[in-house]
Design goal:
The chain is about 25% helix and about 20% strand. The protein is an alpha/beta fold. The strands form seven sheets. A six-stranded mixed sheet has the order 9-16-15-13-10-11, with helices on both faces. The structure holds beta-D-glucopyranose. Beta-D-glucopyranose binds near residues 59 and 120.
């Protein structure tokens, strides 16, 4: 489905092409230039004389960002409330492309209602290090899961005459030193790991916009990188849309103009000084940038505008609609991962419970707008505590914060320490409440001040002394369910030992509390699966094991190559704390009867495989059947990962119900990128198809041969 070789060129129909060319012929140079750079924080210049509107953009991915003034201060309008959607890794944890589509549709509709042409989402960089401050915004460590969800999000957004702007192209995998770091990565890792979701977003999602990243790739800034913007994007992927720079991510006039950047965006307000304003005019006059190049950029922008601002609405778009909150709820409820289960604890059996102590600041915290970077001014955001009180009116619910969030991220931080000591007074108060209650729900974790754009975390420790809090609370009352809210891996190894039940929760949008409480109560059976590996130790993960993070002298060398995420843990035989694809359910499932239609295939064949999934427990539930492929070693000895995710399906089953699940793969999905030949190649020989419910639990296997 999302294999490397199923390209489809973007097309501009004849009528659109003629209209664009006619407009270009009527534009003056100054008018053209005004379209090529910011004229405000989030828009370019317009040409009213010809009916060409400004190109209006806004962040994503959490929802349509509130309006800000020229100093980034909120404009406090009554009209810019929006739905807050679960963060990227939450969406990925659903392993549900249908939900990614609904997310895109809702986001696109709200963007259209707010009169935006471009929504700066989805954010699809690979989780290379768990410390990346934007791990919560991104989707996954795996290129297939990343692509499958990105494509649907893009398609959904664009159903509303709003362009998806996939970001940040490319290899923007850390925030530390993000404006300068020069990524040295081999060609194979680029093609197999870091590029597939961008490629798929364009070739399969038909994205009309892409954002160049801040960092450099092999010595050249992404906003002026001819390999990325010309060779790959325009020539190979046939991209006809618009390349927009990240804000203040442009570093030159002539190089950027000649190497493929279309629009320069930024945060400075002296718009005439932008590289693509007066300096570009001078460069054109000096003969350094031909008009043909300028016209190509205008062509891309007009193509985008004709799909968006200049396209009539077919339906009236809505903001904050019930459907959008339903989508936010559905994503949240399918994203929650049951990490540890104990039947006596979960789902909660409240028949004898008269009192619950809810402990931890995260129980009442809102996650819509903290830290550095884009948030949402949500019409509402339901916290865990609010929802518990609402849904359990007959139970005495007490609350104690347990820890204090005092860390403030500043723009000048490059990395941050876990910081903040345990607060003994708050812990004493929490332990007291825990001891008196029949049941404790301990709501700890990260937040959006701690996990944020522009800085990485310094380590995997749980901040604010929360482990000390957890020790005390679990000692005071072992009837404790741990709810850990975060967007990235943390070191929860001690919690894994000491607590009977753990739910992994995310920055889960407007319906956060409702979704989480419904999972606690068993109204929703958890079906989320981790979209990345939780290492037991930071140094177990590749970038850290090889000391290539954050890099030296501004260079980050991706020495691990294609061995990112579970590919590394497999190769090094390291057990993670929780593996990629992991997540339990209140019910149980069994897989049996794996079959393929043939045993030997030609390189151009499709492979039809099937497997039976049975719900063997006593609760309805969803399970994600994951299909990984391994190439058996052969004489050619081309290095291949132990396994790679190639497909997955999420299925709902009633107790006792069985379903036959069919998978269709292409043999070309087994290809690796041959650096010398500069193309994808399928090796002949034998491959093992492995089916299971996490990357470590793959009980059903079948071997096939490729001629
Ligand atoms: C971020 C982008 C974002 C832009 C505009 C930058 O700092 O890297 O993801 O879209 O700001 O807010």
């Amino acid at each position: 489905m999302f294999g490397p070789m199923h390209a489809q060129a973007q097309k501009v129909d004849k009528q659109t092409d003629a209209r664009i060319k006619s407009l270009i012929s009527q534009l003056t140079l100054d008018e053209k230039l005004s379209m090529l750079h910011a004229g405000s924080k989030f828009s370019t210049g317009a040409v009213p004389r010809l009916g060409i509107p400004a190109l209006t953009t806004d962040d994503g991915p959490l929802g349509v960002r509130e309006e800000v003034d020229e100093n980034w201060a909120p404009r406090k309008l009554p009209t810019d409330y929006a739905t807050f959607f679960p963060n990227g890794s939450a969406l990925a944890a659903t392993w549900n492309p249908t939900l990614a589509r609904l997310y895109g549709q809702a986001l696109g509709e709200e963007a259209r209602a707010r009169k935006k042409d471009v929504i700066l989402a989805p954010a699809i960089n690979i989780t290379r290090t768990p410390l990346n401050g934007r791990t919560y915004e991104y989707l996954s460590e795996d290129p297939y899961l990343n692509s499958a969800l990105a494509v649907q999000a893009v398609k959904g957004i664009q159903q509303w005459h709003v362009a998806a702007c996939v970001k940040h192209f490319a290899v923007n995998n850390q925030e530390a030193n993000r404006y300068n770091v020069d990524v040295q990565v081999d060609e194979r890792a680029l093609h197999e790991i870091y590029l597939p979701a961008f490629k798929a977003s364009i070739e399969q999602g038909n994205a009309w916009a892409i954002m160049s990243a801040y960092n450099k790739l092999r010595g050249s800034y992404c906003a002026e990188n001819s390999f990325l913007l010309k060779d790959l994007l325009r020539k190979e992927w046939q991209f006809k849309g618009t390349v927009i720079s990240d804000w203040n991510g442009t570093h030159s006039t002539v190089n950027s103009a000649l190497n493929g950047l279309d629009v320069e965006m930024g945060t400075e307000t002296a718009y005439n000084n932008y590289y693509f304003a007066e300096p570009l005019k001078a460069a054109i006059k000096a003969g350094l940038v031909p008009m043909k190049v300028i016209d190509e950029k205008i062509y891309h922008i007009l193509n985008l505008l004709l799909h968006t601002a200049m396209a009539p609405d077919t339906k009236v778009p809505k903001l904050n609609s019930r459907e959008h909150y339903k989508t936010a709820y559905d994503i949240a409820s399918e994203s929650i991962v049951l990490l540890k289960k104990d039947k006596r604890m979960l789902p909660l059996n409240l028949s004898k419970v008269k009192s619950i102590a809810v402990i931890g600041d995260n129980a009442q915290r809102h996650f819509q707008r903290e830290g550095f970077g884009a948030g949402v001014k949500a019409k509402y955001e339901i916290s865990i505590l609010q929802s518990l009180k609402y849904k359990l009116p007959d139970i005495n619910i007490t609350y104690a914060p347990g820890y204090k969030v005092s860390y403030k991220a500043t723009a000048s931080d490059s990395v941050k320490a876990a910081g903040n000591k345990a607060d003994s007074k708050l812990i004493a108060e929490a332990t007291d409440a825990a001891g008196k209650a029949d049941l404790v729900i301990l709501c700890i974790g990260g937040n959006r001040t701690y996990e944020t754009e522009n800085t990485d975390r310094k380590n995997l420790s749980i901040p604010y002394g929360q482990q000390t809090l957890a020790d005390a609370v679990l000692a005071a009352n072992p009837n404790t369910v741990v709810v850990f809210t975060g967007g990235a891996p943390y070191d929860i190894s001690k919690l894994k030992e000491q607590s009977p039940a753990i739910l992994w929760d995310w920055f889960n949008g407007s319906e956060h509390g409702n979704a989480l409480v419904d999972v606690l109560l068993g109204k929703v059976n958890p079906s989320g699966k981790l979209p990345f590996t939780f290492p037991a130790l930071l140094d177990d993960s590749p970038a850290h094991a090889l000391h290539t993070y954050p890099g030296e002298n501004n260079i980050a060398e991706y020495k691990e190559g294609i061995f990112v995420g579970y590919r590394w843990f497999d190769a090094k035989k390291i057990d993670p704390l929780y593996c990629f694809g992991y997540g339990l359910s209140y019910t149980t499932f069994a897989l049996a009867d794996v079959k393929t239609d043939k045993t030997t295939y030609a390189p151009t064949d499709a492979i039809n495989a099937s497997i039976t999934l049975t719900n063997t427990g006593n609760m309805p539930g969803k399970e994600v059947v994951q299909l990984y492929v391994r190439k058996d070693r052969d004489a050619a000895a081309i290095e291949r990962p132990e396994k790679e995710l190639k497909s997955f399906r999420k299925v709902m089953l009633q107790p006792g119900e069985a379903a036959t699940i069919r998978f269709k793969l292409k043999v070309s999905d087994f290809a690796y990128y041959d650096v010398n030949a500069k193309q994808w190649k399928v090796q002949p020989g034998s491959y093992v198809l492995m089916f299971g419910t996490s990357s470590a639990e793959l009980p059903q296997r079948v071997r096939v041969w490729v001629k």
